[in-house]
Amino acid sequence: MSRDFSDAQARLLDLKQEYQDRIEKIEDHIYNPQDDLNEHWDDQAISMRDNEMRKTLLLEAKQSLNYVNDALSRIENGTYGECTVCGEDIEDKRLQAVPYASLCMQHAS
Ligand SMILES: [Zn+2]
Description:
This protein is mostly helical. It contains 5 helices and no strands. It has a domain at 6-81.
């Protein structure tokens, strides 16, 4: 019996949209710093530190987006919900908490 992942898929698509929006916003801040310079013209150190922070956030968002895209393609090819290490079903509770989880609880820890 195959499991129904339509809820998970809907949540993943929401997450995907959310991360894409976030990435777009952060990139806009990084590559169009004029706005910031107007706000923080008197303290460039703060502005630079903000950019470092934004780059970290950007990397995180991109990584999360990768996880989400991976999970979506696993739904497509029917391997979603299986641990990529042991091949066992990932616990439902875990998938609800982390819809893009690719490891069972045992292998995630
Ligand atoms: Zn496992």
